């Protein structure tokens, strides 16, 4: 889940809560404006954007740790405690209900019930999305169905050496031969495992595990030499990513 989508979710939650609180506290409507309540709620919930990024970073860092779910839950509980501290501080200083009858520190008691359930719901939502995203990346399609003549060939991603765009078609060079599919090149990036397949040019995707050599081309350009001897030029936009892949996997 992208931070932009999560930001939209937070704004929706804050807006709905602000409207509900304003509607519920009908006795103070002549003293409080609805926009004040909504802005206050946006301020209350925006720190969860930092919480989302923190959990996202922790999930990526702890993928190889056996009990990484326990780490995520522990971190989530810490974030809830920190969020309550932020909620208390902001409400004590900027709540539109501050100093009004029946409120203490700018809040009413039932607010805590709402915030606790929503905090727990956000934690569950974030962890579920992160784990689902991880699962989707680790379990790409096992087989690609390719056709040649009247025959159907089932090909594993590891059997694909490189893919090249040709107008509205994509040519796949595999250990089973060359195939042509009427699909755009970018559609294959969505299904092939991103740990091994890398776009090196706007018209070329390679299987990095099929590369035998990185060679210097003309001037400062870089070329990849495939195990079958094929040479492909790497666009300047992708040179760093290709070099980083091999740097992280060599001794």
From TrEMBL:
This is LytTr DNA-binding domain-containing protein. Residues 144-248 form the HTH LytTR-type domain. Keywords: DNA-binding, Membrane, Transmembrane, Transmembrane helix. The chain crosses the membrane at residues 7-23, 35-55, 67-88, 108-127. One of its GO terms (molecular function) is DNA binding. PROSITE patterns: HTH_LYTTR. It holds the Pfam family LytTR. The keyword Oxidoreductase does not apply. It comes from Flagellimonas flava. Gene3D superfamilies: LytTr DNA-binding domain.
